[in-house]
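Weekly structure sync, notes
Attendees: PL (lead), two postdocs, one rotation student
Agenda item 3: pending single-chain targets
PL asked that the sequence for the first pending target be pasted directly into the notes so everyone works from the same version. It is reproduced below exactly as submitted, 291 residues in total.
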Amino acid sequence: MAFVRLGLESANVPHADRYGLLWLERGNLFVEKGTLRFLSAGSANLEAGAYDIPYQTLSMLLLGPGTTVSHDVFRLAGSHGVGLVAVGEGGVRMYTAPPLSPDRSTLARRQVTLWSSPKERLRTVLKMYELRFGEQLPTTNVEELRGIEGVRVRSSYKMLAQRYGIPWQQRKFDRAHPEKNDDINNAVNHAATAVYAAASIAVAATATIPQLGFIHEAAYDAFGLDIADIFRMKITIPIAFQGLRRNLEEPQTGIERHVRKMAGSVFAREHFIHQMIETIKTLLADEDEES
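Predicted structure, written out during the meeting:
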């Protein structure tokens, strides 16, 4: 079946330069060979037929009555920042379920209070490092804390490399040419991606504000990155080395798949997302009310 392209093709287009919304109804939206496609049964706005959807140029897809969506669509849309919203005919209703969240805004308001006060923000940063290392560190200087973190992370690499029998001298990576990264760096990156996804779920579940990070600042998901980093030494790096050990035993599977499977196993065993949710509550707790 031939597919007709709806609109222009482009990649990595900033939202300010995208065309906005595309309405789809009465058809099947799916992914085939990396391309988003819509098989229309025909409606007042779109003739029956098969269409390629230029998702890179869109901010949001509005899915009207009679639309079915494959799981792969969510993966592709999520990776390109394209929103999916279920709507009534003509947009007179919005049916998309809101994020799972409590019936109070206590944590979000507390997050804003801590974030907006330089003194409280620094105290929260120190609390994050305390949660990360399991102890109060002997400095309140953020740059010095980052230096201590670097030393401990390198020590963790060395220890885990010995435990899992993986040759290692130093972590080598090239941000400009990721294809040249070594296996350990790739494994750590895959593990970090998985842990960040878990943190994003925890942030959504607590109805906290993704953009208001305390250590990370510029990213739209800064708070999720903050939470993920708390578990870097305890969860992320061990998952990476365990996945890499599996890859040495079964190289045909590939590092990414081994690390993802290991991450899923650890998340289930450790009730990891629940841990993250409780960590967010602890981090944002009103210490005056607790005392």
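Discussion points:
- The mean pLDDT is 84.
- The longest helix spans residues 183-205.
Action: rotation student to compare against the earlier draft before next sync.
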